Amino acid sequence: METEPLLAASYLFFYLAATPSLWSTSIGIVGLLVCSALISGSEVAFFSLNDNDLKNLEEEKTKASNRIVDLLKTPRYLLATILISNNFVNIAIVILSYFLLQGLLPEGTIAAWSAKLLELFPILQRAVSSESATYLLDLTITTGVATFILVLFGEVAPKVYANLNKIQLAKFMALPLLILRRAFKWFSSVLVNGVGLVEHRLAHRAKSKMSKEEIDEAINLTLSEQANSEREVDILRSIVQFGNVPVKHIMCSRVDVIALPIETPYQDLLSVIRDSGYSRIPVYEGDLDHVTGILYAKDLIGHLKEESTFEWQQLIRTSVMFVPEAKKIDDLLREFQKKRTHMAIVVDEYGGSAGLVTLEDIMEEIIGDIRDEFDNEVEVEYRQIDEHTYEFEGKTLLNDFCRVIGVDTTTFDSARGESDSLAGMILQITGKFPRKNDVIRLGKYKFKVTGMSKRRIEYIRVSLPEK
Question: Are 411 and 419 in contact (CB under 8 A)?
């Protein structure tokens, strides 16, 4: 039994020796397998070289090391050369394997095997003819045998070897690959340029922005399983919305800006600074549309004991930053960082002062209200009547209103129009000044005007939908 494989191998050897064409075909297949192994292994050898290996090769200054460095200067062309060469070799192996198989098997063997298969599986007789079955079986055997040999001896084994001996194999294959690169220069150029075009299109698609709904869904899927994740969800959603929020939505409106006329007496100035608690106060000439500078409270520290005639105007910093209402707050943040300032005057389309925005306002848009030891008053004036009912000041910004009632800041985007405050949204919906106790419905939300003056809505009671 042990001598049977040896006898079979001897028979095959003498059969090939007696048939010159089969013998040369077999030698050709073996030679091509060696080439396939070397080319496949060189792919791993070259592209697994690290920075330290390349540095050592550059210091060697030998012909082989210089060739390796030269090849890796254009890695895409090197890879294209390897792939093209390997494919040509593999195709040649499959073709020679077909002829070898035809020569080794007696004539009619494949046809007999296919007839036997058709007898074993009658259902196949309805799908294919005997000639087609013979052709398919012949193709399957040839492809299967060639694929097994190529994967084992042309891919797996050489790549394992190359991983362990990358420097030696790279040096050995450097010259052949340089020759092949020149030989396939035109073919490689077409392949590299084609891949570059596909890569450009894929990169363009990858850069396209996801919709807000998709990002919100991703945030929910990521954090829904975590306990106490509401805060993280709010912050992540604020970051998503960050680039779309205009300055107008977060600024302190003109009527609420604490500013000083330039002719204000010194003692009155100190009183305003003490009462407001602000560290920066805009200064204007005539009215707020003509802001001339910013007064920093810290600049007054060395002048607290001055007389009432002290000319505090000399301390005004005239480098005032003006920004339009429509400016996005992510752009404003970058501008604040670049100019190293914390405050800007917001101007409307006519150049008049619409309000004031600070770095703190931008930060609060992401992480919520920032409270320090000097903030004694609640910035958002509201009263919670019960679990589903609140009362807000009409001037409350819509973004702050949404945070208090616990909804997304985009909930009322369809109704707010150009308005920034809760009262502004009510005026946008009604198109006129409502009367006291008027009720305005917006979807599942109910707004009741509970306080009115001649010129503005003072208080609004909001009834939330029950969960």
Answer: no
Domains and CATH numbers, the chain: 4-205 (no CATH), 247-377 (3.10.580.10), 380-467 (3.30.465.10)
- Can you give the pTM of this predicted structure? 0.43
d(CA 226, CA 238): 19
Residues 6+ apart with CB under 8 A from 466: 388
Do residues 16 and 27 touch, judged by C-beta distance below 8 A? Answer: no
User: Tens digit of pLDDT for each residue in 115-148?
Assistant: 777 667 666 666 666 677 676 776 777 777 777 7
Q: In this predicted model, what pLDDT tens digit does every residue of 63-97 receive, in sequence order?
A: 888 888 888 888 888 888 888 888 888 888 877 87
Pairing of strands 260-261, 280-284: parallel
In 3D space, the residue among 152, 146, 180, 149 whose CA is nearest the CA of residue 42 turns out to be 180
- b/e per residue 13-50 (b: at least 16 CB within 10 A): eeebeeeeebeebbebbeebbebbbbbbbbbbbbeebe
